[in-house]
Write a structure and sequence with these properties.
This protein is mainly alpha-helical. The chain folds into 2 domains: 168 residues, no CATH class; 80 residues, no CATH class. The chain is built from 13 helices and 4 strands. It has a 4-stranded mixed β-sheet with strand order 1-3-2-4.
Length: 282
């Protein structure tokens, strides 16, 4: 039976939470609301909540969907919708592109062999999203300044191809142009809900900051523990599992982390008391 978009997203979250390179975002996946909307074209976040377009999710294979999920989690983790709000006020399209250029390189570098995540492609096989090696090692502001300079330099030069202004020409290209009146083309990977981010109250922003900090700390601890569980035996395994369960007990996102913990221990010999403790948490 074919899974719904909601079911695929839930499964994707769990699979990423089990992987040592992406479990850092375990708690971040659960920050805010995650919904699927028939009217959303791709995906969007306001820095707290994430909404996915149903048709877009259905068009992606599992690795592409995982890339998209990590992409949105990184926007949240880096506080993009608050940190770079001034850039968005000046030019929202270039701000969006600059943020995406930075995080897409990081995601690709984390899994260069595309074992877990793969950058989505459109029906013609073209990469969807911003990707360019020349921005390696730069932050969003540095990328934004370059894009802005190129945009101003190309002002009025319609019809030129490829290299200038970030126009796509090869594997490192992207489906956006740099004109302000372009909303993006078929190569767009996601959107950014600047209006929704601006509607968060001061208290909500402070709470979001605390929740993301906590989620990243939990993910870091979870990752370090999960990586070592299969290598340990006897008392060392018990001690490590106890630490892992402590993280779950203290976590704001315990139910989801329980799934990861259970799958981490289910395939290896584990004392009954540890299994019972995990079941009690559920």
């Amino acid at each position: 039976m074919k899974l719904t978009a909601e079911q695929r997203l839930e499964r994707c979250h769990v699979q990423l939470m089990q992987h040592r390179d992406f479990c850092l975002f375990s708690g971040v996946f659960m920050v805010g609301k995650v919904t699927v909307n028939d009217k959303v074209r791709t995906a969007s976040t306001n820095g707290r909540d994430v909404v996915y377009g149903r048709a877009f999710v259905d068009s992606l294979n599992d690795k592409e969907l995982a890339f998209l999920v990590v992409h949105e989690a990184m926007h949240k983790s880096y506080r993009h919708m608050s940190v770079w709000r001034n850039l968005a006020k000046e030019n929202p399209l270039l701000a969006n592109m600059a943020m995406d250029y930075v995080i897409n390189l990081e995601i690709r570098d984390t899994d260069p062999s595309q074992i877990i995540v793969a950058m989505p492609r459109d029906a013609d096989g073209n990469l969807m999203g911003c990707l360019d090696e020349r921005f390696r090692g730069m932050d969003t502001k540095q990328v934004y300044d370059i894009l802005k300079e190129e945009c101003e330099g190309d002002d009025g030069d319609e019809g030129e191809d490829g290299g200038g202004g970030g126009q796509p020409s090869d594997e490192n290209g992207h489906g956006h142009g740099h004109n302000d009146n372009q909303s993006g083309s078929r190569g767009e990977l996601d959107e950014h809900d600047w209006d929704g981010a601006g509607e968060l109250t001061g208290d909500e922003k402070e709470e979001l900051e605390r929740e993301i900090d906590s989620a990243l700390r939990e993910g870091s601890i979870l990752g370090s523990l999960i990586c070592f569980i299969p290598r340990l035996t006897g008392n060392k395994r018990c001690a490590t599992l106890s630490k892992l369960l402590f993280v779950v007990e203290m976590s704001q996102h315990g139910v989801d982390l329980i799934v990861v913990c259970w799958q981490a221990i289910s395939s290896c010999p584990t004392p009954n008391r540890v299994r019972q403790r995990l079941l009690l948490l559920a």
